[in-house]
Amino acid sequence: MATLSFWGGVGTVTGSKYLVESGGHRVLVDCGLFQGLKELRERNWRPLPFPVKNLDAIVLTHAHIDHTGYLPRVVADGYQGHVYCSRGTAELAKILLPDSARLQEEEAEYRNRHALTRHIPARALYTENDAYNALNHIISVHHEERSFQVAPGIKASFYPAGHLLGSRCVLLDIEGAGEDGKGRRILFSGDLGHTNPLILRDPAPPVACDYLLVESTYGDRLHDPTPPDEALATIINRAARRNSVILIPSFAVGRTQELLYTLRQLEDAKRIPTLPVYVDSPMAIKATELYLQLTNEFDESLLNRAKRLSLRTRDTHFTASRADSRQLNNARGARIIISAAGMMTGGRVLHHAQRVLPDPAATLLFVGYQAAGTTGRRILEGEPEVKIMKQMFPVRCHIERVEGFSSHPDYNEILAWLEELPAPPRTLYLTHGEPSATQSLNQKIQQKFGWSTHIPSYGETIELK
Ligand SMILES: [Zn+2]
């Protein structure tokens, strides 16, 4: 008997973990960290309901921490097998997992310093050392759309997902599964990208499968149809006329590279003036280098247009050290600063925000989702003052927003992707969404296709008949 069970990425967009069991063998697809609400984060501290020592393999869809960030813990708990992923995911994990560990350690240290813990001393969920140990288990798979054995009787294959460098849909082929013993195929969409991502190859159409898990992050919304370059040009030109700073909080991996690419396109087309652009994030520097190494991930049209893609503007400065970062405070005139964290929950962007927020000539430009409870969300919602590093700052600058950079498809794009399935699945499972988004997408899929669908709950186990 083969089963599928859901241990994260259901009822929420974080903590993705899907367990497939067949013939006494177990494969985990994604190994994500729960993030956001406290109730979810506490799940990270509970042991998994299955012994990790008995897992045969782990397969990853992509490198975002909500899909990989639990790996160091699983390895620290005794997992000894391989972790299979694409080359892009393997390379990004080398940047993201140690960084996640440092955040865990800093948080534990903060709780100890401020006596904010019931457990004395507070431990980190995992350490930087655990993260490096986890990286040693990674096997990077260079070929696509060709299956490879991950456990006895279970094969996997990867298909481009267009969501992040190295992101893939994962197909598991389970020999002998099902009532007829003919085997069953499960397709995991992972996180999908736009139909036409800015830099990356388009998501591949879904392959024929018996069971399909599809993400539903934006299952209840349509993206702003204004192309992001157009919206960006309008805002940059307006800000440039005021001859003042434009601060863009941005996640260092993915979004920052898209921004640099778009700004360069606008400069080359003379749609915006050439301004100094400061990328103030050591992680963004590493990630940009990686993007330029893995050009096989790029959309073909880009490679044909230019032999070498420019992921920098005409006047880009990468600031690696804290001293360089502080130097930025002395700069004057129209300039762009791109800095993490993208939701202003920490990082160097907070130092810049202290100067930008009270300045009526300055611009704060959001290019990503701002989750509830973050400083970014409070500013977007029009709070007149916000707390930055324990001090209140008035919000007097111009607040702008470009929506078109989203890395998830809206519901029309998901429906268009599903339409390409060669045949209806036996059951489609909706995952990776807040409940309202998932339910809304479920209705749309049933109306359009009339397929058998199910919204799984946390810990649910389903027999793959
Ligand atoms: Zn993702």
Description:
The chain is α/β, with parallel strands linked by helices and 465 residues long. The protein folds into two domains: 277 residues, Metallo-beta-lactamase, Chain A (4-Layer Sandwich), CATH 3.60.15.10; 174 residues, Rossmann fold, CATH 3.40.50.10890. The chain is built from 14 helices and 22 strands. A seven-stranded mixed beta sheet has the order 6-5-4-3-2-1-22. A hairpin with a 2-residue loop joins strand 2 and strand 3. The radius of gyration is 22 Å and the shape is globular. The mean pLDDT is 93. Bound molecules: zinc ion. Zinc ion binds next to loops. The site of zinc ion has 5 residues, from loops.
Quick overview of this protein structure:
With 465 residues, the protein is of the alpha/beta class. The chain has helices spanning 38-41, 65-68, 71-76, 87-113, 128-135, 228-241, 255-268, 282-293, 300-305, 322-327, 349-356, 375-380, 411-419, 435-449, and strands spanning 2-6, 18-22, 25-29, 57-59, 82-86, 138-141, 148-151, 154-160, 168-174, 184-188, 211-215, 245-249, 277-280, 316-318, 335-339, 363-366, 385-388, 391-394, 398-401, 427-431, 453-454, 461-463.
